[in-house]
Specification:
By secondary structure, the protein is mostly helical. The chain has one helix and no strands. The longest helix is centred in the middle third of the chain and has 39 residues. The N and C termini lie far apart (99 Å). Belongs to the cytochrome c oxidase subunit 5C family. This protein is one of the nuclear-coded polypeptide chains of cytochrome c oxidase, the terminal oxidase in mitochondrial electron transport.
Length: 65
Amino acid sequence: MANVPKIGKAVYQGPSILKEIIYGIALGLAAGGLWKMHHWNNQRRTREFYDLLEKGEISVVVADE
C-alpha cells in the first residue's frame, strides 16, 4: 500500500468544565431576564389598575341595573 493517509477518529474527551460553567451562566442570565420582564409587566398592570381605580374610571363593585 502506497502512502494512504490515516483518518483519525474523533476522541471524546469528556465535558469541558469551563464551557459548562459558561453555558450555565448564559442560561441563568437569559432565564433571569425573562423572569424580570414578566415581573415588571405584572407590576405595570397592577399599577395601572390601582391608578384607574383611584381616578374612579373603573370600579370593583358591580353596578346595579
